[in-house]
Amino acid sequence: MMFALMLAVVLLLIVLTIWAGLRANEADWGRWWVNAIDGLARRYVRRFHRLSGARLHLPDGGVLVAANHVSGLDPLLLVAASRRPLRFLIAEEEYNRFGLRWLFRAAGCIPVDRGGRTDAAFRAAVRALKAGEVVALFPHGRIHLDAQPESRVKPGVLRLAQLANCPIVPARLEGIAGPGTVFTCLFLRSHATLTDFPMLTAEHAHGPDMRQQLGELLLGRRTALEIAES
């Protein structure tokens, strides 16, 4: 009798959790259970990490989201700020992390071999962008705190925009407790904020100093991009 009661309670908790996730869901990932995880992530980020009211303003069609990389919390913050699913470019070693690959795969993450063989990831990202999806990445490559000296982003983000002929929406994350950590930050309560900036078009991505400018923008070292009118 006691076992049956405990089982019923567990099942009820599971149903309530799924229901809560689906109620909070805002982006359609194509599968109900992924939508439920999306909703739970939004509740967690907004209530525990206090990311309230922040929104990524994304146009229709293919678009790149480029953000600074402060911690392991960053992808959840971006997901919670978007009404569209985000396909993240993610390091292959992270994609294959034990116990998480199923989730990254379900979310459509694109693994990148940081050993230098990036062509397959680039082709997959370009296909997704041309199909009208949103691809998100951290163009400094790894966790990169504001105080670190190098500003320039990796060239891949601008190359992707040019190959897919799509805009870039830059976004800056701040207020995260435990910066520089991957897991500790998940358990420290933050007062996270997200700022998105005006789009950078594929045409303007050709600018000779755009890697430097975009990097400085994401790291809080400038407030806007200087784009020469053609």
Strand and helix layout:
Blueprint: H1 2-24, H2 32-47, E1 63-67, H3 74-80, E2 86-91, H4 92-95, H5 101-106, E3 110-112, H6 119-130, E4 134-137, H7 156-164, E5 168-174, H8 184-187, E6 193-196, H9 210-218
Helix pairs in contact: 1-2, 2-3, 6-7
How much strand content do the residues show?
5-15%
Radius of gyration: 19 Å
The percentage helix is 25-40%
Shape: globular
Q: Estimate the mean pLDDT confidence.
A: 93
Spatially, the strands of the biggest sheet line up as 3-2-4-1-5-6
Low-confidence stretches: none
Give a concise summary:
It is built from nine helices and six strands, in the order H-H-E-H-E-H-H-E-H-E-H-E-H-E-H.
Structure description:
It is a single chain. The chain has 230 residues and is α/β, with parallel strands linked by helices. The chain folds into two domains: 1-47, no CATH class; 53-218. The chain contains nine helices and six strands, in the order ααβαβααβαβαβαβα. The chain has helices at residues 2-24, 32-47, 74-80, 92-95, 101-106, 119-130, 156-164, 184-187, 210-218; strands at 63-67, 86-91, 110-112, 134-137, 168-174, 193-196. Strands 3-2-4-1-5-6 form a six-stranded mixed sheet, sandwiched between helices. The longest helix has 23 residues, at 2-24.
